[in-house]
Amino acid sequence: MMNRRNFNKLVVSSFALSMAACSSITSVSIPKNKKRVVVVGGGFGGATAAKYLKKFSPDTEVILFEQNEEYYTCPFGNTVIAGMNDIEYIKHDYKTLESKYKVKVIHAKVKKIDGATNSVILENGDVYPFHKAIVSPGIDFKYEKGYVEGSEMHSPHAYKAGAQTSLLRKQLEDMKDGGTYVMVAPTNPFRCPPGPYERISLVAHYLKTNKPNSKIVILDQKKKFSKQGLFQEGWEDLYGDMIDWRSVEFGGKVTKVDPIKRVLTTEEGDVSADVLNYIPSQKAGKLAFDSGLVKGDWCPINTKTFESRLVKNVHVIGDASIATKMPKSGFSASSQGKVAAMQVARLLAKMTVINPPKLANTCYSLLSPTYGISVAAVYEAHEDKIVKIKGSGGLSPMSASKEFRMQEAEYAVGWYKNQMADIFR
Predict the structure, then answer these.
(1) pLDDT: is 1 or 317 the higher one?
(2) 3-class SS letters over 388-400
(3) Strand order of the sheet with strand 269-272?
């Protein structure tokens, strides 16, 4: 039985523990005579924004919050899956951002961006006030049709690079010659529109070289896809009839999936896979929802400054933002990071923002180590829309020579190296 003395001890102990927990939570005040900009998310968009903000506004305190100490890029992740590169090739860190550009990098999980108090709240409860925030929350997935959270362990999507990239690579290596690799490609919009089809191309290259009796089936939840003519021309030239693409209208619509047995139900019957690469449809990352930045599935923004239309002083870039006509790509996110950094620097200095700022996108896709295709465009950003500048960019030509395709493959490698140097070096 608990007597009064023991009860009092319990109360005192509980109070002490409560006070200790409270004392471990800190609010990190902004240094005097300083402006603070927090950047959340250290991918193509966030890392670029942090670096260029320090370039545009050296006296501003820039804090980058990124949960992971190392970042694995989705671009060139498909070369890892196909065995052309190892996982180290797509791994990058934040050391140069800290040492050379004086960005303060904090590896911690952000719980919420609080627009009411202009502060970032970490999972551990720590609070960082800010004058402006640039947020690149990335994507999350719509789990449905039997593909639930955890299904990635059996049927990886590998659409966030890292562990799943290596898992899909291992499953491909373990697949028997004569097996079937099945991909489910998502509905629009989604990260990197040509990405699934580059992956299919490089998987086909691996299989043709190592397991030539195998086949590939794409169950596409769309009627068409990015650079379709160029991809299908390349598939026929390089891989013959190995690749079977089925659109949502003609046998591709998936109604149910068993990710453990790797069986898909379609309107025309079941499809069994030895390796199942299920890429779910997508939405803005969870942090964007938790921070009130989302309307529908994505984040509405003023496209001239990338400031959220829902939360003042918070600028949203990258895949999570509604930045059409720009595709959701790494290069787009990096370009948006530079524009957001420039506009935020000008707003802090009480200068007029650039109107309209220019943005760009360039996307290379490898169909084999020596066969590349590309798409590029330049854009103008106004307050309510982003428009493509007529005559800018374009697609690789159809029916190009082998030498031309080889040159584009070389350009793709150079593009990746230059991008990584621009962001992380």
Answers:
(1) 317
(2) ECCCCCEECCCCC
(3) 254-258, 263-266, 269-272
Q: Which two tokens stand for residue 289?
A: 């929802």
Copy the structure tokens of residue 278.
């299920």
Cα 161 from Cα 276, distance rounded (Å): 17
Residue 105 in tokens: 């990098």
Q: What is the mean pLDDT of residues 355-382?
A: 97
CA–CA distance, 295 with 41 (Å, rounded to integer): 20
* Pair 276, 124: CB distance under 8 Å: no
Q: Is 363 exposed, middle or buried (0-12, 13-18, 19+ CB in 10 A)?
A: buried
Is 108 within 8 Å of 232 (Cβ atoms)? no
The mean pLDDT value for 87-98 works out to 98
Cα–Cα distance measured from residue 60 to residue 52, given in angstroms and rounded to the nearest whole number: 11
Enter the pTM of the model: 0.93
CA distance 306 to 299: 10
In this prediction, residue 24 carries a pLDDT of: 55
Q: 135 has which bridge partners?
A: 40, 316
